[in-house]
Amino acid sequence: MTAFATVEEAWQVLCDGDDDHARAEAIVFLGEKRYAPSVPRLADLVRQADPGTRYLAAKALGQIGDEAEAAVPTLLDALRDNDMFLRAGIAGALIQIGPPAVPGLTQALFDPSSAVKRAACKALGKIGSERAVPALKYSLNDSNAGVRKFAREALERINTPEARAALGGG
Fold it and tell me: What is the pTM of this model?
């Protein structure tokens, strides 16, 4: 059972509370309730908080879904974090946000970090947007074997005529 009866109570704790445990509960509650007005504050936490809070905030943004589109640039920046668990949480949030995240994820395929490119390939494959096919096709020639593998898997999941053609099929 949650400590909050309303989103207003959770919002108040998120904004003004100094108890880390209560703040974590508020983040989870606001995500579960898909409370879109919390997007800017949650994005701020993804940028500046400790790793655990960053993860919870990213997960909450994902639960909010496409209404969290404004947080996509922040999530894409956080995708560069060295913490693989946080990176996985960020990628999961971007997948749940869906099509609004596709342009940024497509750009992430050209990031210097192979870890970022792999995460972007996975997310794009799960979102399934045909708009990502040209960049994924380019990623089939990446110097990193993992990026090539995940680009191939993403194209297989997208499975449109253009994606099949990129894989050498028809």
Answer: 0.89
